[in-house]
Design brief:
The chain is mainly β and 281 residues long. It has four helices and 13 strands.
Length: 281
Amino acid sequence: MSEQSAYFVPGKVTEEEGQIYRHYHPTQHTESPWGPGFQHGSPPAALVATVLEDGARDAGLSLEEGRFSRMTVEILGAVPLSELRTHARVVRPGKRISFLEAIVTDESGREFIRGSGWWIRRGDTQEIERTVGEPMPGPSGAGDGSDFLERWASGYINSIEARRADLDERHLNVDETRNPAIYWSRTDLPAVEGKEDSTWVRLMKTVDIANGLNNLLDTDKWTYMNVDTTVYLHHEMRGEWLGLSAEANYGTDGIGTTVTRIYDEQGLIGTCNQGIMLAPR
């Protein structure tokens, strides 16, 4: 495990039978609060975004003429703090839409993450732009988010900045059981050393924390790890701050979902859904 000022340090790039493989070394900033020896879900999510976008470029898909509308991260196992091998492939090629897959393994070939995303060619729809979502208090003037940061302290959590903005009565009158705050997050660390973050990568660096923001369960009594993260964006992220209005939903059979509305400082930009494995300690 490296100790650089990024989440991953790039390693060798190889090509086998026409497939490009890129290797990455995780740093101490990826460490998870759930246990020693593996990564928090956010850095691997950012890595998946990196792999998908690199895969799109390798396939000749322009990230100026098109963009990803959706990315999904499937967590197949606890991601180790050791070298990772990545590659992407185009499952459904097309000039207007393409479906891509990203695979992350260790050096032995064991899969730990499988990601996917839809690339869609851009068009001019400014005259019909529409966003349905209540306005939220922004990061300016918000609290320091110490309730979240201290509860989940780890190599990764210690690398991000989080602020808590409490909702007002207008929001809470809609549903008194809702999460009473929106959390804003950002980090100065790039996902990959020496590489500028795209808007998707910047978002994926902190979006996975949504599952830990609706503090309903006693973490001394319960675990609630997410098995996946799916993000839809109708608008690209603007600026550095990512706002997450997260709501936890728990079923009766050990399964739950965290449903999150995603904001930047200009308004609602998308949604995130996470499947949760609930278990008593």
